[in-house]
């Protein structure tokens, strides 16, 4: 079994498409198909169900995927450790990030990392499912580390440390009734329509838990995945919404309404608690921590 075959298998499993996997790997599709067929013969089981319309993992493929990721990660770590023996940090680090990262200036820390370790590179990724998606990606090895907002206890298997905290701001259009109330409570907001982010995003989880903890429910008819759209919808009076205060301060056309009990939002850096970081990932983690000293 070759590492190349495993890398092709993981690419197809993550893309659920031989075409997209080939584009990602920068090889012709026939090479990917040939490698997968050879791997299936070697393991004695079909790894994918495929037809002209879809590609899906079989039970055997699903069982093999985490082990394949582990094997590839171990191979990368071995190569990076050998390079690190000479004092040089090299390799690719995959890091998840968020729309808001509090006091952590991601471009600045990536600039420092690049200047200090020119033979290493960072692959920066966002997850459609927010911090929950980052946590899953770190646990299964698709990300080396990530910035995430995880209210409450972090999932088992994750090491995490809080690196930034700030309040969530409640935003409303200037002529919205909520904007004229002064200080508001969650109970007074229960009947309002909300503009919010998808389930799995840290700020959404924090707000949902706050309402549930108060024995309240709320309506979220408008879900968005960026601050520009959130501001535009709130500005039109279509709902109120919670955003990290750092991002809210930069927005025009909306007002911040004080909460009787502020909601504290945090950003953590997370990585696997069971899988050692590569030298390059450990160096990037040091740069993340250095942001606390800037």
From TrEMBL:
It comes from the Bacteria. Signal peptide: none annotated. Keywords: DNA-binding, Transcription, Transcription regulation. Residues 1-58 form the HTH lysR-type domain. SUPFAM superfamilies: Periplasmic binding protein-like II, Winged helix' DNA-binding domain. Gene3D superfamilies: 3.40.190.290, Winged helix-like DNA-binding domain superfamily/Winged helix DNA-binding domain. The keyword DNA-binding applies. Belongs to the LysR transcriptional regulatory family. PANTHER family: BLR3139 PROTEIN, HTH-TYPE TRANSCRIPTIONAL REGULATOR YBHD. This is Transcriptional regulator, LysR family protein. It comes from Amycolatopsis deserti.
């Amino acid at each position: 079994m070759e590492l190349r075959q495993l890398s092709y298998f993981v690419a197809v499993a993550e893309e659920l498409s031989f075409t997209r996997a080939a584009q990602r790997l920068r090889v012709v599709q026939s090479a990917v198909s040939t490698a997968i067929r050879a791997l299936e013969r070697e393991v004695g089981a079909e790894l994918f169900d495929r037809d002209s319309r879809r590609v899906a993992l079989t039970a055997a493929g699903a069982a093999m995927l985490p082990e394949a990721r582990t094997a590839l990660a171990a191979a990368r770590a071995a190569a990076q450790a050998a390079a690190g023996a000479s004092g040089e940090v090299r390799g690719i680090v995959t890091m998840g990030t968020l729309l808001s990262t509090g006091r952590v200036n991601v471009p600045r820390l990536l600039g420092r990392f690049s200047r200090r370790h020119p033979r290493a590179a960072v692959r920066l990724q966002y997850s459609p499912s927010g911090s929950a998606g980052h946590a899953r990606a770190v646990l299964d090895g698709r990300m080396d580390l990530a910035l995430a907002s995880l209210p409450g206890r972090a999932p088992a298997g994750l090491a995490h440390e809080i690196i930034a905290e700030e309040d969530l701001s409640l935003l409303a259009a200037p002529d919205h009734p909520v904007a004229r109330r002064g200080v508001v409570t969650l109970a007074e907001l229960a009947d309002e329509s909300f503009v919010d982010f998808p389930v799995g995003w840290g700020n959404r989880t924090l707000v949902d838990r706050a309402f549930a903890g108060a024995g309240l429910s709320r309506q979220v008819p408008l879900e968005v995945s960026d601050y520009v759209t959130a501001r535009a919808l709130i500005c039109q009076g279509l709902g109120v919404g919670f955003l990290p205060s750092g991002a809210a301060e930069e927005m025009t056309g909306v007002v911040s309404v004080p909460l009787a009990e502020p909601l504290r939002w945090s950003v953590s850096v997370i990585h696997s608690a069971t899988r050692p970081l590569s030298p390059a990932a450990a160096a990037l983690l040091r740069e993340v921590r250095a942001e606390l000293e800037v």
